[in-house]
Protein: SDR family oxidoreductase
Organism: Pseudokineococcus marinus
Amino acid sequence: MPTVCGTPGPPERPPGAPRTTPASPGGARPPPRDAARRRRSRRRSTEQQEAPVSTPPFPDQRTAVVTGAGSPRGIGRALAARLAREGWAVAVMDLDEEAVADVAAGITEAGGRALGVGVDVSDPASVDAAAARVEAELPPVVGLANIAGISSPTAFFDTTPQEWDRVMAVNARGVFLATQRFGRGMADRGLGRVVSISSVSAQRGGGTFSKSAYSASKGAVVSLMRAVARELSPLGVTANCVSPGPVDTDIMGGPLDDERRADMAAAGLVGRVGTVDDVAALMAFLLGPDAGNITGATYDVNGGLHMS
Ligand SMILES: NC(=O)c1ccc[n+]([C@@H]2O[C@H](COP(=O)([O-])OP(=O)(O)OC[C@H]3O[C@@H](n4cnc5c(N)ncnc54)[C@H](O)[C@@H]3O)[C@@H](O)[C@H]2O)c1
């Protein structure tokens, strides 16, 4: 401790020694306010004891898992290609095993590294087997993009319990299973990014193509990512959502005809329907090294169709 104008400061504290409150005259106990502060800070340090002080740097060799990457005009395929260009090894997963083999071959031909793996995201055994392959054949998983999903344009009164369960199984349970399976390794390594796709339908109760079961399943995705963010961010794993408006892919009941496209474009502020690259670019950023302080967030990419 330096002295000022020759006035001696308090005695040096040996390195590592606890900071002590000066005792009151006569060695009396510190006032109760200090004791409460100490209790609060002890509680805080117990809650945070497993938190890494800082996350490790992004490794050069790292893998992103992209579910729902098989569809030829889909968001997953566009994201997988983008991530490969950005230096990730990519595990492309889909119910359609042949399609992801093709996607992986395309990425490899373009000079990237990829593995196509068939998976049913709603089935825990299938997710576990797929994850085991990825872990055996690719570098450590740092990113997970939960994209696999199905639509449900059925009116509320016509929605059967079976359809409800199927939509929830793929869109909500699938995100839960993949995030839990890959999240464990991320938490062990102290670094991970989970980004899941919700939908403007969760915010507006449908209104574009799908209806109640789909909207509810996509609402669950937002809530789940917030809860995961709360538990896993202190372990180095962020969790976020993107919430697209209409994008011209096959999930909208096939390619949009001119009239539907024009109606959808007119409903937003930007005046066009979204593209797979609009969504993929945002997801790639949230999976990347610069997004480490973003967690529990939901980003709209809807051309102003809805403001949240
Ligand atoms: N296109 C849009 O307008 C839009 C808008 C908002 C949100 N989204 C969401 O974006 C995601 C991607 O949709 P897309 O537009 O690319 O549709 P898409 O139909 O082209 O892609 C979805 C992919 O998920 C796969 N899949 C379905 N069930 C699966 C399962 N059980 N296990 C593994 N894979 C499965 C399909 O085979 C398909 O390849 C979906 O979750 C969708 O709900 C799409």
Q: What stands out?
A: The longest strand covers residues 237-244.
